[in-house]
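Predict the structure of ATP-binding cassette domain-containing protein.
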Amino acid sequence: MLEVRNLTVQYDRFRAVDDLSFSVGPQSGITALLGPNGAGKTTTMRAITGYLQPTSGEIDICGIRRDSSDPTDSDLAIKRRIGYLPETTPLYNEMLVSEFIEFSGRARGIEGDALEKAARTMVERLELGSHFFTPLGLLSKGFRQRVALAATLLHDPDVIILDEPTSGLDPNQIQSIRALIKELGRDRTLILSTHILQEVDDICERAIIINRGRIVADRSVAELKESNRYMLVGRHTSDIAAALKATQLVSDVESEPLEDGWMRYTCSLKVEPEKFFSAVRQEPFEIREFTPVSRSMNEIFRELTQEA
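Done. Here is the predicted structure for ATP-binding cassette domain-containing protein.
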């Protein structure tokens, strides 16, 4: 469980993170942390994980409180509970993959049989066996990302924070990593920061959107995509668009011709859809389809973060 209260990070006169409060747990599902470049996402993640000292605010991770006024005693205990994959992962190019995984495990306090078992699990899950004895400096970007992810998950953390985890991967690797993220999110607190909004659609249940250091939306992905726009497919010799407007129950009617005289109409409802459909059924035209139109994550993102 992760709880953030009144988190603020200020650099001189610039406030990168402005009084953020939210909580995320396994029951939240995989949570996306979204925002345009410079919105404060990375600063927020660094403050949560202890890489950055916040100006003010409190952070609780698995019942351990990290207070900005006295963080030292709790930092180590919190870091043992967190797996953090930054967007740019520092890797030691001279090390072999095997050496780096061993080093990462020992840095987390894992030794002996426990380290061997954890390493074997990560190598299998992330398909690193073919490059296990390759120097990190010779790896492709995709393989470097997979090694970094292995180090992030090696100690089986309760809270996982991933910043652009599929960056640089090919389509097959992306599907594999997304499947792993879904599996991890079933019983862990997992925050995913990404610019690939299709990724949010595919694997996230909740989205926190930040702009200019403040939260502008914090809802389930399904709720964010809801809208009052509906699509109706109908056919009649008269002007259905005019008839729809005449009901005064809709606005912004758009039409598109289909085959065999059918037309697709998209409109915004001013009333409940049941009331609208009941009124439309009294009109002298044939209705083939009436369905809600959900907004895309791209539309939602632009709406909430574009500058006025």
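The first strand starts at residue 2 and ends at 11.
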